[in-house]
Structures
1.
Amino acid sequence: MHGIRKHVFAACATLLLAPVAVQAGPSTYQDVIVGERAAGMGGAFTALADDASAAYYNPAGLAAVGSQNLSLSANVMDYQGQRLRGYFRGQDLRTNSVGFFPSDWYSVIHTTRATYAIAIIVPESVSATASADFSDPALRLKFDSRQSVQTYLIGPAVGLALTPRLHAGAAAYLLYGRYSNNFHGTITDPATGRVDELFQQITGYQVGAMGIAGLKYFLSDRVRLGLVLRTGAQPSHRDDRLSIEYSDVSGPTGTFTRTGSEAKGQTYYSRIPWSTTMGAAYLPSPAWTLAADLSVYAGARTSAYGTEYTNKATCNVNLGAEYAATPSMPLRFGFFTNRSAAPGPTDGSEPQPGHVDQYGVTASVGLVKGSVSTALGLKLAAGWGKTKSIEGQVIDATTREAALFMAGTFHF
């Protein structure tokens, strides 16, 4: 029975706390869609890229911005949830995340030779909690878990017009992230009254660098093409704190024994793969804009607290439309995929990442008045796939997300 308890704790803590959660992490690449115009169009912005968010989508587009400006967008409400069916002894587990976070900030400076930008972008932000009370005649398992992950891209970008039809650009970003995982669980044996307890805490950060190079070509007044290449990144990780305490509380007298350990510098790396995005935009009339992007990602090796796996090559699609009956109030719609690159999990005791593909839609309304433009929008997404139960069986997993986002730009 003692071995079973330790196995349950180890499996539960690993599956919930390692940075390979079902909802987000190193196996998905479109967790947050940023920008003012781009967010409403589902992230289909590589060929358009005509505002400050070009620093992220395609730096070549900065050449067409043409004015100094400050731009900010934020998820004023972001809800994420997941359901793992049959997580322990046939019972489901639900996790939830509710938060607010700025998604990007830009300062753009236009000169006669080129347009420059300084950007702060948040491509990933999760703050998830999970609580459960599982019981059957043999044992009772209770736990609380909290996971927080934030990733930032910070750096300069530049775009310039090589010819009136061909624009080029590049960006260099510092990648910085913080992660925090906390787990507390107890296992109670109803027959003997014995209670086993586990505390686990991990906090740390990652630092790396990545670059973006892009081209934008005006095939005609109505058709634009875009191409972007993003370098891979292998951030270096460091644990500020790793502590594990396992306690046995035995019998009615409450005899107490404790063992614990603390360590730093655990083996953990996650490679952000090389990727390329090809985009096209079509403007059939002054009121309508249609756009489409296809992103292809290379495979990448990942290791997290004893779990090693290779993310597969994958791709994502972004589709967007904008209708501006009047230039002062455009309506935008979009569709996007956020497919997992993780290999499908298999039955067995070893921890493995979940594989869940997400699909989402966006919609927003903009308001342009003088030197100020704003947008208010909604993002809805859902996902289906597989993950592992505590006992090591492959189980169904579903995710859902709803985010209300706002953005604004001041031109001067």
2.
Amino acid sequence: MQPLTLKIDSVQLAFDERKILQDVYLECKQGEVIGLLGRNGSGKSSLLKIVFGTLTPFYKHVNINGTVIQYGYLNNRIAYLPQQNYLPGGIRINRLASMLIDGQYWQQFSNLRIYQDHQHKYAEQLSGGELRQLEMLMILFSKADFILLDEPFTHITPVQADYFKSIIQTIAKTKGIIITDHQYYDVLDISDRIILLTNGCTKHLKNVDDLVTYNYLSGIK
């Protein structure tokens, strides 16, 4: 079976007449990780929310293999890890997991230590770090064809970041992943391609040095 391709084109978004996104094009195939970089306020989170379907722009064209997608969250097409916590309270973790996790990954997910330790708890009983880890794992092992990760490495340790990078690379063998994070070196470490969002436009970078060319970095160490 040919891998699915998610395409995002012609996104236009403005707040109070200030253009945030105006010339956006990117695509992501199942089997690859796309790194999305940009300075604070460049519109990275807004773009992911538009693709997911929770933010309505002036215009967008999103499709998967030619089928137009208005709301990515429908029918398990696209899953989104927001910067804020998303798991609801009042429902045990194991119940939430049974609804969210892709059956082909259930054994792998259910054997994870953090799930074993907290599966009978509620989200409000977990620490911020524990909750962030479980939320990220549930998104990665979800039923979605494409995964959007917004600041996944924030509030976790470097050791945990390395652990999650290995999981992201494993999941990317069957899913398409778009990831953005201020920890740009973590994004560079796992991405097959890098796209820079600057002045409302997407720049498809040929190499890391282009981050200096477009003034995202002052120099490469």
3.
Amino acid sequence: MKANLKLPSLDDTMLAVTGAVLCGLGQGFMNHGSQGMDAVGIFYDGIRNTLSLSQDQIGTASYIVCFALSVFLWFAARKYVSFGSIIYIVVYGAFANWGTLLMEWLVPGDGLIARSAVAFLGLALLIVGLSVYIAIDIGVDAFTGVVLWLTDITRKKMGIVKFIFDLSLGVIGFILGGKLGWFTFVAIPVSGPAIARLTKRFQGLYFKHKIKLAAKE
């Protein structure tokens, strides 16, 4: 299986970067909200805690995890490694750190309402960012790559594999000290359906854009 290392077009690259920026900021905002995160966020936070990194270094933890998973995928399922994957890893990690720092500056207090608002904003950014990134279809993030690999080898439905995988991530992350809170029980059931719906919407807009560009050439 060959890695998909074909360079994407400039407009696809910019859209991928935009999606990854929104995802990173969203994760950083939820991290600062301290009301709980999605399964991936809990896992990153658990790794951050295990490595004794500061709270604003959750993006650094994501670098470590995603690099390890990408190395694994390179040998196990190289077709799921692409330049799009690299873009996501690099941009997401940086903006997850910066998003946390930004909210520490803008919302320094511990008020429940303010922290909850930050968490909801973060979830919205994460959903939109992932939907944009998935819609342009230039690669998958490391976690999705592992889910696709597991789907291939188990021959089970992807939805079932992803549910079990996300549940495992959340449990492991919590054991390692990741934040589990009331917001987790909002983020996990809401994000999946919302991402699926928005992805279809963005795909329609994306293909219309491509058709217009092709007509001009």
4.
Amino acid sequence: MQRPAITALLTCLLISTAHTADDAVVSLIVENDVITGTDRHYTSGVLLSYVSGLDEGPPGAENFGRKLFFIDDDDQMHVGFSLGHEIYTPKDISNPDLIVDDRPYAGHLYGAVDFTISDDYELSTWRINMGIVGPSARAEDIQSDLHREIGSPIPRGWEHQLDDEFAWGLMYEKQWQWRPRKNTSFLPHAGVSIGNVSTHATVGAMFRVGRNLDADYGPPRLRPALPGSLFFKPDGDGTTWYFYLGVDGRYVAQNLFLDGNTSKDSHSVSRKNWVGDFQAGFVINNRRLRLAYSHVIRSKEFEGQDERSRFGSVTLAVRI
């Protein structure tokens, strides 16, 4: 299921970008805890996205975006379309029984639309996402097939996963950039998300040091996470590169992957309201390609969780 979906989206991207401006960007983000030597909790995430050039999005989508709060008619706007998939599991995937004190199995398949405006000092993004959580997301098949390919243990507890449920979310976030020196930048951020997937408020900051820092606003990630920009642009002469450190704190009022299904009985755990991410990594790009790596440490998300989550995030992007 995952490969046909990605193939279909790539076809749509190629058709839709045939006459776009030079700064449209196609990105693939892969997040997985196998990079950090674990296999639990948020264990896999994939996001394929297309971001239009400035004011080069589909007219209907742009007109809708300009009706959102904090976006003016004269703002230049990127419109983005994404297809994502996420997998969540308890720590012990070899146990076929329900593990009552660990998080539920869950898969999440979704599409998202982003509306982003930016200048050298601020970046604002609205995101609308809709999809499905449950067996129809095919997380069991994807994880089992992948584990067979790489010789890892086959997960045995997927019969206890969350049931099918329509999943939706609306997010707004904003970043500010302060440049104390030419080769450093400090980017505080704040945001809010509502929906049955996650309802939370977030605040944090990123510090970067490197070269040509106006090319982007940090590496992109699957939400919830430190914000970044799916687009990037040539800046200065030659290659852009930087290292960064970032922190993000969230007050979580609802999390479908911990609280369980909203409209029917399902397995759930006692969610922690305060969750934090620490993130470090690097970004390098030239005029066409961007490569980014992030190492993420996430604080405990529920009562009884024995240790923090760790995973890596890799982004490959191309301007078209």
